Amino acid sequence: MGRKSGPKIPWAEILVSRDAWILTAGINNGVSKLVGEGISHYRLLQEYPNKVKCIGMTMWGTINENTRLELKSASNGFPKPLCERHIPDNVQEYKETIERNHTHCILFDSGRLNGYLNDSPRHQFVIEACKHKDNDHSCYAVTIIVEGGLGTLEVVENDIEEKRPIVLIQGSGRLADVLAMLVEQTSNYDRNQHRTPSDQEIEQALGLFFHSASYSDASTVKGQIKKILQKEHRYLLHIFSMNRDKNVAETIFKAIFTVTKERKKSELPGQEEQFRKDEDKLVDLALEWNYFDGILPILQARQEEIIKMQRETIATGHGSEKVRP
């Protein structure tokens, strides 16, 4: 996520108007900048009144000294001596600032200058957010990978561990394109048969989107990618092609629906009622997003259940008549 310019992703409408919480790295660079500016432009052009919760998560030592001084000075009761510059002018530091269109920014302090945040804080944040459920509310976590460096592999691994769906924006570059290419290379047309990519296929994909100098431990990277692309994980990976697909909402909803459907396969006896409630919430979500095609698989499955129950009832009735004295 280090580029100063990047692809224009048609995400603003789906994220802004659907009451989503958006988590980014929060800095005025790369994808975080695109997200912040995209949200701001959408709200301005559409005269959208609500503020979208866009939360940046980064390191205190990542942002530059001027930004740190500005934040210190704006804090009530902060000791004045600490509001003075402490970094010598000859010390090189990152030039990052906080992206101003984010509504919140959480800063983590490791006591070190420079360096970027690992995925652990985001991972734990999402886990806690998704715990808060009731009959009227559910939290659906979806990770959207736009571009991304090799450090983003940690993000994808954590999401797979928690069975969170991932949308790869194909055409945005770097890791998103590497994984999307390998998914397509190692799947059949219907995406229901998969194989593990070979080392050569992974090396070729990496060579197209990364300079060899950008990753030193090639064996570790290849191992991470192979783990991510194991057959049992493929239902979590979804591709939105910037050259082919039109509707990001459709891809995101399919990602959520597929995970819900897979969860049903492993449900225990007595969980049918809860799963039906979860499906009802998905129907509400599809209606809220004006994505009516998303309702069809649920309604068709329920119609098939009703027909099956009717047939079983009729068969039972005929059986009773036969044994009647």
Architecture blueprint of SSEs:
Blueprint: H1 12-16, E1 21-24, H2 30-45, E2 53-59, H3 65-74, E3 104-108, H4 120-131, E4 143-145, H5 152-161, E5 166-170, H6 174-185, H7 199-209, H8 218-228, E6 237-241, H9 248-265, H10 272-288, H11 296-323
Parallel strand pairs: 1-2, 2-3, 4-5, 5-6
Q: Quote the beta fraction.
A: 5-15%
Poorly predicted parts: 1-6
Percent helix range: 40-55%
Shape designation? globular
Radius of gyration: 24 Å
Number of strands: 6
Describe the protein in words.
By secondary structure, the chain is mostly helical. Among the domains are: 133-245, no CATH class; 256-323. Helix content is 46%, strand content 9%. It has eleven helices and six strands. The strands form two sheets. A three-stranded parallel β-sheet has the order 1-2-3, with helices on one face. β1 (21-24), α2 (30-45) and β2 (53-59) form a beta-alpha-beta unit. The longest helix has 28 residues, at 296-323. The chain is globular and about 85 Å long. The N and C termini lie far apart (78 Å). 28% of the residues are buried.
